[in-house]
Amino acid sequence: MTAQPAAHVMWTPDPIRQRLADHTVEDVLHLPDDAPRVELRDGVMIVVPSPTIGHQNIGNLLWFWLRQHAPDTFESVTAVGVAMGLRDSLEPDVLLIRQPVTLTNHFVLPSQVVVAVEVVSPGTRRRDGLEKPAEYAAARIPHYWRIEQDPIHVFAYDLVGNQYEPVADSDTELVLSAPFDIRLPISEITP
């Protein structure tokens, strides 16, 4: 009789710790390589849905545009979380963060974030449009952009007091004066 290789079991959050809601950002940092992306909400791990190709293309094109046009004091990144607290984290689609950046970080602090960007998908509409902006605002992130798909339309918000106020929206060219002078042709982030 020959030994059969053990079947690979996909990672899932520990159900006991999920019920206790005692996961921390440190736990997320130590997830195995095959674990899905997760956000922490009050110590509970929430699996982040895998983005579609179109969703990723929009985010990647925006990352590239920001990389080319943002001043050297900023860095554009994707697939990096924001540690909102010890028991809370978010996974925006694109971030514009302040330099200097430690290239080995999996998370940044809200104080490093200049713009948080969410590309909205049907399954993330409520979270990206209502819940996350409130969390970003509470963390004092100065700018939030929401990108709707099909057709692509960018909505930009600035933090005023404790909430975001709309400052621009466009399906042709996004024009902003903060965090730097921006003239973003929407065609350049359209796959």
TrEMBL record:
Its domain of life reads: Bacteria
Transmembrane spans: none
Which is an annotated Pfam family here? Uma2
CDD domains to which the protein is assigned, alphabetical: DUF820-like
Give the Putative restriction endonuclease domain ranges. Answer: 25-179
PANTHER family, sorted = SLL1072 PROTEIN (PTHR35400:SF3), SLR1083 PROTEIN (PTHR35400)
Protein name as it appears in the record: Putative restriction endonuclease domain-containing protein
Species of origin:
Actinoplanes friuliensis DSM 7358
